[in-house]
């Protein structure tokens, strides 16, 4: 399908022209584009919020910054937890990660409209994942959303993945070497327990064994008239 | 247009302002204000300052907030730790960034092209 004739529903809804995989920043050193179902849902959840605050726990991806800025007019906060995991692993201090996470952030409760966890939880052991998930639940405003990816198969070699948003229906997976591979495979009940206080609003298990999950904090009840 | 240049060995502590494009390769601590011009932070530059410019191109290291009325461009090996406020932000793959990015959608939405006025045609009497 040529770019000029692509008028999929999502591109009409979100006005995002499909990027040619051969061009643009996201295509450099990236694998082929992979279908995603959760990005459109994430955007729809924030569509009615004025200048939403989005917290990205992954590394900065320039084209994602542009995409989210154009789609949402959001204030994006990039925290790059992967850099912290990598640093502590190389310093052989990874067992201090739970304590590090407790003091790492300074967000007020219910101050963030959305959190992009990507697959960071896959790289944390249970104590660290518990701390991070608890903090994410605290930060999210009522009605806010959390996007997580969970890899359901072990990784053959230690790699990090940057998820480059090509458009509302496609991601490019850009991998880089990691000091340690993924540590945990989560089942649905594990996700529910980790994010107590949020409800899974969307969950998609994709062919390449990645589970895309969108969690939402219950919005406050509308006042009775 | 003239362009200023601050060399690698220069260290400035305080406020730096101007009305021409500027490239900095040295160290600046404090505040940089080039509201109508392009500021280039060169590969050797180490900036610990609040930065205000029309456009900011980062090839070196900035610790501090950047406010640009047009664009902030963090190139490969550029590094910013701080908040960015600008209608357009470009970050290369090899760049480092940690902080908040505020792309006010109202500021970034381009104005629709004004329709060209049709020339008046004199009517026949």
Mean pLDDT of chain B: 86
CATH topology of chain A: Rossmann fold
Total helical elements of chain A: 7
Q: What is the structural class of chain B?
A: mainly beta
Percentage of residues assigned to helices of chain B: under 10%
Task: Summarize the biggest pleated sheet of chain B.
Answer: 6 strands, parallel, barrel
Summarize the structure.
Chain A has 225 residues and is an alpha/beta fold.
Properties at a glance:
heterodimer; A: 225 residues; alpha/beta; Rossmann fold; six-stranded mixed β-sheet; three-stranded antiparallel β-sheet; 9 strands; 29% helix; globular; B: 125 residues; mainly beta; six-stranded parallel β-barrel; 11 strands; 3% helix
Protein architecture, described:
The complex is a heterodimer of chains A (225) and B (125). Chain A has 225 residues and is of the alpha/beta class. Helix content of chain A is 29%, strand content 28%. Chain A is built from seven helices and nine strands; from the N terminus they run H-E-H-E-H-E-H-H-E-H-E-E-E-H-E-E. Chain A has helices at 9-14, 38-46, 62-72, 81-90, 97-104, 126-139, 188-194; strands spanning 33-35, 53-56, 75-78, 112-118, 140-151, 159-167, 170-177, 198-205, 210-217. In chain A, the strands form two sheets. In chain A, strands 3-2-4-5-9-8 form a six-stranded mixed β-sheet. In chain A, strand 8 and strand 9 (210-217) form a beta hairpin. In chain A, helix 5 (97-104) runs parallel beside helix 6. Chain B is mainly beta. Residues 106-118 of chain B have low confidence and may be disordered. At the A-B interface, helix 3 and strand 3 of A face strand 10, strand 11 and helix 1 of B. Strand 3 of chain A pairs antiparallel with strand 11 (96-102) of chain B.
């Amino acid at each position: 399908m040529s770019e000029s004739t692509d008028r999929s529903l999502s591109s009409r809804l979100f006005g995002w022209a499909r990027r040619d995989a051969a061009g643009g920043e996201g295509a450099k050193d990236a694998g082929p584009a992979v279908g995603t179902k959760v990005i459109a849902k994430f955007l729809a959840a924030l569509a009615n919020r004025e200048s939403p605050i989005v917290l990205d726990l992954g590394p900065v991806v320039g084209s994602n910054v542009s995409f989210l800025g154009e789609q949402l007019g959001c204030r994006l906060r990039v925290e790059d937890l992967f850099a912290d995991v990598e640093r502590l692993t190389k310093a052989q201090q990874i067992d201090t990660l739970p304590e590090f996470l407790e003091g790492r952030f300074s967000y007020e409760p219910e101050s963030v409209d959305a959190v992009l966890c990507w697959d960071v939880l896959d790289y944390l052991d249970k104590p660290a994942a518990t701390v991070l998930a608890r903090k994410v639940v605290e930060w999210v405003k009522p009605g806010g959303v959390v996007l997580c990816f969970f890899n359901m198969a072990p990784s053959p070699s230690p790699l990090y993945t940057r998820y480059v948003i090509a458009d509302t229906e496609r991601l490019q997976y850009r991998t880089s070497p990691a000091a340690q591979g993924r540590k945990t495979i989560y089942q649905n009940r594990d996700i529910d327990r980790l994010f107590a206080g949020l409800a899974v609003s969307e969950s998609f298990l994709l062919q390449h064994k990645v589970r895309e999950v969108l969690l939402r904090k219950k919005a406050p009840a509308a006042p009775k008239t | 247009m003239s362009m200023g240049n601050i060399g690698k060995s220069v260290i400035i502590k305080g406020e730096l302002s101007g009305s021409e494009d500027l490239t900095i390769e040295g160290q600046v601590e404090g505040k940089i204000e080039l509201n109508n011009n392009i500021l280039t932070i060169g590969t050797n530059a180490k900036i610990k300052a609040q930065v205000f410019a029309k456009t900011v191109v980062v090839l070196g290291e900035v610790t501090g907030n950047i406010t640009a009325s047009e664009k902030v461009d963090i190139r490969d090996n550029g590094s910013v730790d701080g908040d960015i406020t600008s209608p357009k932000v470009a970050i290369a793959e090899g760049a480092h960034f940690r902080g908040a990015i505020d792309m006010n959608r109202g500021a970034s939405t381009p104005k629709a092209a004004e329709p060209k006025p049709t020339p008046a045609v004199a009517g026949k009497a």
